[in-house]
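fwd from M.: "can u put these together and see what the complex looks like"

so here's what she sent:
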Amino acid sequence: MKLGSMEYLQEVMKRSNADEKYRALAKGQFETYTLVLEAEPDKGVKEPVIVGFDCRDGEFVDIWQGAKPTLFTLSAPYGTWVDVLRGKLGATKAITMRKLKVQGPFLQLLKGGERVLHWVEILRTIPTEFEGDYAQYNIPGKAQH
Amino acid sequence: MARISGAEALVRCLIEEGVQCVFGIPGDQCNPITDAIYRLGHEAGLKFITTRHEQAAAHMADAWARVTGQPGVCLGTVGPGVADLVPGVYAAWADSIPMIVLGAQNQTWRCYPEHGSMQALDQIALMTPITKWRALVNDVRRMPQLVQWAFRAATSGRPGPVYLDLPSNVLCDKVDTDEYPILSPQQYRAVTPPVADAQLVEQAAEMLVHAQWPLLHAGGGVLRAGAWPEFVELAEYLSAAVTTSVGARGVIPEDHRLCLIPSSFGALGAQATADVVLLVGGRMGDLDFWGRPPAWGEPSTQRWIQIDLEPQNIALNRPVDLALVGDAKATLRALLAAVKARTGPKPENPQFQDAREGQQAWFHQWEEGAHSDAVPIHPLRLMREVREFFPRQAICAVDGGTTAVWAFYMNRIYEPRSFLWAADSGHLGAGVPYAVGAKLARPDVPVYCITGDGSFGFNAMELETARREGAPIVVIIANDRAWGMIKGGQKLVYDERYIGVDFSDARYDKLAEALGCYGERITEPAQIRPALQRAADSGLPAVLDVIVDTEVHLVPPDLEVLDGLWMEGCEPPCPEE
C-alpha cells in the first residue's frame, strides 16, 4: 500500500480501531490531525502528501486526503516520516528535535503521549510502499491478528 | 609577634572558614600542610581524609560542597597529584560547585619556568580552563591574603572551583601574622548577597501576577544559593507549574502537586504552553533543550523572566523579556514580597490538569518494567526497589550512562541537596566518591549510590576509604558487563557493530569483600529488597552487584532523544543498508 493512499489510510483506520491498547490510551481524546509529508524532488518525491483523520474517544471515524482545518498539523520532509515508520527515528526524538514540526495544542498532544507512541507502533505493522528513492525501505508489514 | 609557617597559615585560614575535611593524597611537598592539619586540626575539628586517587578526593570535596553548601577542599601533591585532581575539578567546575583546590608545587626557584625538577608541571596552566580563579603563592607573606581571596572567589558570583599553587618552600617559610593576619570570613568576603534592582523586581512581580499559566524553572543556582524555600513558596502562591533542570532536582519534592518531572510529557507540555516563565539560576543548556521550541514556547508568544547572579548567564541560550541580576534567594524573597503586595494566592490554571495527565502517561510507561519479575532483572525493577527502600531524605549519588537514565525514571528526589550527579560534565566515576563525601558530610543521613559497572570501576578503590573512615554507603551496581550507553548507541545508530564496549564478568561483590566491605551479587528481583536490608544492617560500606537484563538496559526509552541532543547535526558515517 502506498504511503498516504486511501487504501493505506483505510488500513490505518482498521488497525487502529482494532487495537484495544490504542483505543484505551486514546479514550477521552477528541482530535483531528493533518499530516504533511513534504515533497523532496531530489529524492524522487515530487509532490507533497497531505492526509488527515478524525479520532474521537479512541476511535478513528474519518480519514481523508488533502488539506482541511484540523486541531493538529504535523509536518516533516517525506524522508523523516519514512525514518519514523521504519523505526530509525523515534517519534519523541522527531518532535523534540524539531525534525517533525507540530502545530496545535502541544500540551494536549503530550498529555496522552503514550497513545502517539503506540499509534506509531501500529503504523509500523502496515505493509507500506514509499515514493522515489525511499522505495528501497518499503515495509513488509505484519499480518493483523 | 606570631610567626608561623606558610602551611600553618594556610590551615589556620581553613579553620577560620569552618572547613572540616581536606580530601587528598599526601606527598613530600605537601607534608607541611598535612602536618599542620595533624597539629592543629584535632582541636578545630579539621580532618585530612586520604583517598586512593586524587580524582576521588576532588569528587569528595565536590560532594561535600553540594550537600552542605560550603566549599569543599581537596589537595594534591606536585605534578601527578595535581594532574590527577583534574577530572574531579572539571566535574565541579561544570556544575558551578565552590571548591578550594590546593596543589603543592616545587620550590619557587625551581618552577615557572621549571628546569629539570622531577614531577614539574605548570599547574596554573593545567587548572586554568576548569577553575574560575587561580594563584601562585610565591611568597609566604601573601599566604593569608590569597587563601582568603580563594574563598571569596569560590563563593562569590557564580560559584566554582579555585586553585592555589603552593611551592614547598613557601609552605615552610615563616610569616608574621600580626602583619599578615588570619582574618575571619566576614572581614574579607560579602556576607549579604546582592539583590536585583528593586524596580525590575516590581516589573517581574507585575508579569507574574498577570500571567495566566505561569511556570517556574529552577537551575542549579537555586540549590547553590539555598533558595528553594522562596522558590517553592512563590510557586505555591502563584499556583505555578514547577520544572527543574536535571541537575537541580530536589529543589521541590518530586511528588509535590506543582512539580513536573524534568523532560516528562507533562513538563514538556507545560514548558511549551506557559505564558510566562521565570527561570532562576540556570543556563538552559542541552539537557534543557536549549530553551528552544517545541520543548519551550516560541519567544514571540512566551515571556521570560530570568534571575541569575552571573550577568553572563542572562539570555545565554534563550532570549528573555526581563533580566534580574542578583542572588537567587535574596531576589526571590523580594519578588515574593512584591507579588504578595499585588495579589492574594492565585488559583491553578485548568491546563495544569492536562500537564498532570501528561506526567501520569509518562509514569505509566515505566510501570510494567518497574514491576517485572523477569530474570535477568529489568533495570526499572531495580530502581523502584532501591528508591522504595531508602527514606525520602536519603542522599543519592547517581553515576553511569544508561544506568543514570534508568535511575531517572524511577528514583524520585524529594529533598534539596540530596541528589548528586555530575550533570553538566556527565563525568563517569563520580558516584562512589560523591557518596563517600556526602556520607562524611552528613553522617546522620542514609547515602546510596546507583552506578553502572563501568562507572563503578573508575573509583572502586574508594570503598577502602569508606571502610577506613566509617562511611557506610550502599552502592548498587546495575551490571550489564559493558559501557552500556556507548554500546546502546552502537546498537541504535551503528547497526550493532560493537567495538570497545564489552567487559568480562567481574565479581564486584567479591571486590567489596576484599576491601573489608559487605558484598552480594543479585540475579533475581525478589532478592533485591532483602539484600538492601542486609547491606544496611551490615553497618559497612556495601556493594550490591545486580545483574540486569543487558538487552533492555542498553537502550533506555529516551536514549535516542539524548543521543539526538548530544549528536545534533551529525549523521553517522556508516553505509546505509
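replying to her w this: Chain B has a mean pLDDT of 95.
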